[in-house]
Amino acid sequence: MLQQSLRFAHDRYEAGHASDLEELDAQRNLYAAELEVVRLHQAALDNRVQLYKALGGWQPADVAPSPKP
């Protein structure tokens, strides 16, 4: 949707019906949305790591495993 908006703003700019500011604004909105997707993906990965650690699936390299009785 935002890519479409950017194309529309670019076409309007090329046709002389809009300023370069309108095109830049559409581009900024697209980049902001893409950045938010990356942030959400990173948060999901961080949450997976935290869950993995909470379930005991991670041991630091400097900690020896506890001996089994």
From TrEMBL:
Q: Which InterPro entries match?
A: MdtP/NodT-like (IPR010131), OMP_efflux (IPR003423)
Q: Where are the transmembrane segments?
A: none
Checking PANTHER family in the record gives:
OUTER MEMBRANE CATION EFFLUX PROTEIN, OUTER MEMBRANE PROTEIN-RELATED
Its family remark reads:
Belongs to the outer membrane factor (OMF) (TC 1.B.17) family.
Name this polypeptide is given:
RND transporter
